[in-house]
Specification:
The protein has about 120 residues and is an alpha+beta fold. It is built from four helices and eight strands, in the order βββββαβααββα. The longest helix has 14 residues, at about 100-115. The N and C termini lie far apart (about 75 Å).
Length: about 120
């Protein structure tokens, strides 16, 4: 038998029924033909719940497919990054672009100047 394609129909969630006494989620008991609360044991008729709910169904959408369908510009989660490549070992370091380059340069020069063991040429 050839492989069958996966089921592409979206899953449909049915309405949940709440217990009239405690508010917990009541479950259908086929033997009693009633909704039974597993927390407090209260039973209630399903017809009243179904009539009140109107038979609504909730359609579940595939999150992965929706996220893959978004263009990168619409995601809004990507921060600007700056990549720096070392000229001697070729390692690449990636930094958040939060501090301006001039401020970084001034901070490094100030740090170099504060090192009293550093060679004079470093300053």
């Amino acid at each position: 038998m050839p492989d069958q394609p996966p089921n592409l129909n979206p899953a449909v969630a049915q309405k949940k029924f709440s217990c009239p006494s405690c508010g917990g989620e009541a479950q259908w008991n086929p033997a009693k033909k009633l909704l039974v609360c597993p927390f407090c044991g209260t039973t209630s008729p399903a017809e009243a719940e179904l009539a009140a709910g109107g038979g609504e169904t909730i359609v579940e959408h595939d999150l992965v497919a929706a996220l893959r369908g978004l263009p990168d510009s619409a995601r809004g989660w990507q921060a600007d990054k700056t990549a720096v490549k070392c000229q001697s070992c070729q390692a690449i370091s990636v930094f958040d672009a939060k501090v301006p380059e001039t401020q970084v340069r001034d901070s490094l020069r100030g740090w170099y100047g504060s090192r009293w063991f550093a060679p004079n040429k470093l300053k």
